[in-house]
Amino acid sequence: MNRWVGKVAVVTGASAGIGAALCEKLVKEGLQVIGFARRAEPIEELSKKLRGQKGKLYALRVGVSNPDEIVTAFQWVKDNLGPTHILINNAGIAINTSLSDGDYDKWKQILDVNVLGLSVATREAVKQMKENKIDGHIVHLNSVYGHTIVKKQFNMYFASKYAVTALAETLINEINEEKLKIKVTVSAT
């Protein structure tokens, strides 16, 4: 972790659970961490708790289903803290719906957060890494359901997690083609 001390990390879905725990760990390791979430207040509270640590936590209200908010947030990061070195795509939602009688709005909600939001955040982070010749790291927190299906409910969630797996693999191909020094990790939770 020493190579990342003082560097900038973005964590989506940072207001609770795994996202909040990741923010806390990265701050304690000395990174400048920006937590994106629909609710900034829990991140602000965690930031207060982490005062005096080696790094610092910043809270930005960002709905990852809104591409404009993601782009604006990454610009804020660049303008205020410098370019992104690490992106952890943690935000995700699971809604019980099926394909045979499911609700379009629920399907869209899942895909907007789990696939399109992840894609926009990845694009913006890679853009900053390329512009600044950063040896960065993109992490997609995925699910074991990106590799297996267990029941008919949550089918769009499963599809979204399979998409995350495919997106990571194609991103690796893109990075290798361009000979960039950006690492891509997919971690199943």
Automatic annotation (TrEMBL):
Pfam families named among the record's database cross-references: adh_short (PF00106)
UniProt keyword list: Oxidoreductase
Q: Name one GO molecular function term.
A: oxidoreductase activity
What the entry lists under InterPro entries is as follows: NAD(P)-bd_dom_sf, SDR_fam
Q: Which Gene3D superfamilies match?
A: NAD(P)-binding Rossmann-like Domain (3.40.50.720)
**PANTHER family the UniProt entry points to:** DEHYDROGENASE/REDUCTASE SDR FAMILY MEMBER 11, DEHYDROGENASE_REDUCTASE SDR FAMILY MEMBER 11
Q: Which family does it belong to?
A: Belongs to the short-chain dehydrogenases/reductases (SDR) family.
| Name of the protein this chain belongs to | Farnesol dehydrogenase-like
Q: Which organism is it from?
A: Agrilus planipennis (Emerald ash borer)
